[in-house]
Design brief:
Helix content: 40-55%
Number of helices: 3
Number of strands: 3
Structural class: alpha+beta
Strand order of the largest sheet: 1-2-3
Shape: rod-shaped
Distance between the termini: 39 Å
Number of domains: 1
Oligomer: single chain
C-alpha cells in the first residue's frame, strides 16, 4: 500500500534556509570525476570556472570522495551525477520559485481588483433596478 505524501509547507523561510545551505557549499562547477588511486569516485569542483569565458583549462579539485562498495563495485553513478548537478540546478530552481511567487502575487492582486470592479458594477446595476444588493455570499455562486 502506497503511503500518502505529506504536503510540504514551502515558505519563504524554507527557501532562505535552502539558499543558505547552498551558499555554504564550495562554489564553482561540480562534476563527477574519475576514480582516483585509492579507488574512490570523486565529485570535483573547478572553483575558478564561474564565467563562460574562463581562459584556462579547468583545475578540478576533489570535494567529495565515494568509496567502492565491499564487492569493489563503483557506487551508483546516477546518484553522483544527481549530487553534482543539483549544485548547478538549485539556484535556477530557487529563481523559478521566486518568479512563480511574484506571478501569484500579481494574479491575486488582479483577482482582488476584478472582484472590486464586479462589486461596484453590481451595486450600480441593482441601484438602477431599484432592488436590494445581494449579500457577498449570494454573488459568489
Amino acid at each position: 500500500m502506497a503511503q500518502k505524501k505529506q504536503e510540504m509547507n514551502w515558505s519563504k523561510e524554507h527557501e532562505r534556509e535552502i539558499a543558505k545551505r547552498y551558499e555554504a557549499t564550495t562554489q564553482g562547477e561540480w562534476v563527477v570525476g574519475g576514480i582516483d588511486a585509492t579507488d574512490h569516485v570523486l565529485i570535483m569542483v573547478d572553483p575558478g570556472c564561474t564565467h563562460p569565458e574562463y581562459a584556462e583549462p579547468p583545475q578540478y579539485e576533489p570535494i567529495c570522495e565515494v568509496r567502492r562498495d565491499v564487492d569493489g563495485k563503483v557506487p551508483n553513478v546516477g546518484n553522483l551525477n544527481f549530487i553534482a548537478n543539483a549544485h548547478q540546478d538549485l539556484p535556477d530552481a530557487l529563481a523559478e520559485i521566486k518568479r512563480l511567487r511574484k506571478g501569484l502575487r500579481e494574479t491575486k492582486g488582479k483577482l482582488a481588483q476584478t472582484r472590486a470592479n464586479y462589486r461596484h458594477l453590481s451595486e450600480r446595476h441593482y441601484t438602477t433596478l431599484g432592488r436590494a444588493i445581494p449579500k457577498e455570499d449570494d454573488t459568489n455562486g
